[in-house]
Amino acid sequence: MAALLCRRSLPRTWLCRRAGQGCGRHYRAALCAELKQPLAIEEVARRPVRPHEVRVEVHFCGVNFADILVCRGQYQEKPPLPFTPGMEFSGTVLETGADVSSVKEGDRVIGVSGFNGMAEECIVDQKTLWRVPEKVSLQEAAVLPVSYGTAILALEHRAHTQPGETVLVTAAAGATGLAVIDVATNVLQAKVIAAAGSDDKCKLAVQRGAQSSVNYSQGSLKEAVRRLAGSRGVDVAIDMVGGEVFLEALRSLAWEGRIVVLGFAGGNIASVPANLLLLKNISAMGLNWGRYQDQDFPVFSRILSSALQSCQQGRIRPYVGSVFKLEEVNDAFLHVIQRKSTGKVLLSLK
């Protein structure tokens, strides 16, 4: 996939603006017309909004690894071709359906969508939009749904993190890792040990609020955590790497510690040694952010409202690592694939 997305492999025809079919206004969108191939930028015809729907002018759209997976055909959701990726966005309301009462034209909003956010406009159900407070920029707001939604769900809803507890977070310089550091430190008053794969990433994690850091490319994560946290270990571990890093994080937990699995960025899925769970009364749990939208929407909505409120109050500070234009969407994907990114990668549609 990385080779397919390299700049030299992108013929200009993939990035041209081609007239869409039909009449009326058109807008530009990134389209996946064939799996495992570069995205095209095309002009798409508008469709009418249904009574419960809202048309939003997109200002920023988050670039998540799930967007890359769905364009490879490797994600659990497999939308029919062609489709527009993009799970989260910020923007302003252009038009509302007859039954919409939660937002009005001109409102600044964030939203979550089933892969249609990488476009100048998108249409979503009114219940998947949240108004953005005045003090929060649309760029900051675009970071909140996936990264901060996941961080808050993991720390509060799943791990029940308490003030003064110690939290270990792996892949700490990524978008979700930095969100975990931000929420744990500044909202929950916990202490954070950040684990990342380079000294530069560790330095960034400390700059963003972690009390200490570990470069797990240079030795045993468990031993480094023991030196920092003592023989007791850490209360909570949030892991996005998997494989041996997950096992080391699991072994670093204290009595009645909790580990939350968010992903497998390292490419390997470890088996959980159940004897460790028994010996120290450890809890190992998973978190799939998107499933809450379908299975427990009140919790999903409350978490996003909480993120917006914390951002308005200045308690959290979303970190944007890179911003690409819509025409640079393939470069943005490559940036994420090659792990060049720290913090959130966004597309700017304005």
Automatic annotation (TrEMBL):
It holds the Pfam family ADH_N. GO terms for cellular component: mitochondrion. One of its GO terms (molecular function) is oxidoreductase activity. Gene3D superfamilies: Medium-chain alcohol dehydrogenases, catalytic domain (3.90.180.10), NAD(P)-binding Rossmann-like Domain (3.40.50.720). Residues 34-347 form the Enoyl reductase (ER) domain. Belongs to the zinc-containing alcohol dehydrogenase family. Quinone oxidoreductase subfamily. This is Quinone oxidoreductase-like protein 2. It comes from Ictidomys tridecemlineatus (Thirteen-lined ground squirrel). The lineage of its organism: Eukaryota, Metazoa, Chordata, Craniata, Vertebrata.
